[in-house]
Design goal:
By secondary structure, the chain is α+β, with helices and mostly antiparallel strands. It has 14 helices and 18 strands. The protein is globular.
Amino acid sequence: MDILYSVIAFILALGVLVTVHEFGHFWVARRLGVKVLTFSVGFGRALWSHRPRGGETEYVIAMIPLGGYVKMLDESEGEVAAHERQRAFNRKPLSTRVAVVVAGPAFNFLFAIVVYACMYMVGVDGLRPIVDGTMSGSAAERAGFRPGDELTSVQGAEVESWQSAAQAIIAASLADRRIEVDVVDADERRQERVIDLGEIVVDDLTRGQFFDRIGFAPARPLLPAIIGRLESGQPAERDGFQIGDRVLEAVGRKVEGWSDWVRIVRERPGETFPVVVERDGAAVTIRLTPDVEQAADGVPFGRIGAGVGDPGDLGGVADRYFVTERYAPWSALWKGAEKTGEITALTLRMIWKMVRLEVSLDNLSGPIGIAEYAGVSAQSGLSRFLEFLGIVSVSLGILNLLPIPLLDGGHLFYYAVEFIRGRPVSETTLMVGQRLGIALLVGLMGFALYNDLARLLGY
């Protein structure tokens, strides 16, 4: 079921994002008088095609959903009738060609703003960034963090949850080694803490080790071990758990709360053990076998596909420990634009750090990693899936603007040369660039796929 979720979510997400990108090219080309022959989502053999009666554009859904294209009338791809030459792409002024090429990535950024706005209107649940304690000798301890400190901003940017705080600290670490964090302490006084990263590198923070490396112990509510959510087809459901079950004992000892229950499960991947639950006032024994999952560092852990339920169902506990970021439409749109800008800046910094070999190339993900993330986000709720769409849309926009032949950025590079020289680049240059672009893209995709397989196999 996990694989099925991932495949469906991946195809849905990629189909939407490719359609948005290609629609940008299509819409601007039509508005600027370029004849569009084909609008295709996907590559390869057509699974479906349609040309409206009297229309000039064929709409296609193709077999391989890893991209798409808009084919325009162009003399470089065949003879064009004299009466239609003014509608050929190659005959249009440089400004028009640039606008058509830029439109694809631009629509990806605009789409990211919209989906992030929708995410904030739906509401994003998170754990408040309250410090329960710090680890001995850690950067957080050296910075002076105390139990009860609640992070309010990082480098001047407001944060409302541990997720947003972690993202802000990771982003700041790409530029600075000393990070200013504003907090409200347990006595409601505003304080400033300065985290000195020392020997901590970005790779440490992006591999699921953020709290361990910085040294934060987040404050978590002592929740009762009551099953509030079950994922279809996962071990908890398969082995007989029901929503509302209160876990009393596991592996022969009393379960103190939800955190204790999670720890027991994670420490026993693939192991079958007895669990006693209270159901309708009676004790029921279940034999549970967690699935084996691989952490980013290759260490296996157990997972059963059960959750504690929505924060809103936890009464007064929710007010103290959980937060929901939700905004009215216009405010959400502004927040969506801010979020898009933040993710764009973070992605560009990460790429630059990779080029300078200051960040490991292991951070690159290919189709397997993206599909896995798509499945997890889809099962986590609408707001998380929208967040996933926003991240991938920004990444797709940036990727297409890289100056690599075959991509939009490669065409823009050729147009820059044409602007300087006063004439288009030669056919020979275009052919050489095309071969180079294919080699670069195949190499990049191959490396990202290798990273996916290495993570999947625990290497």
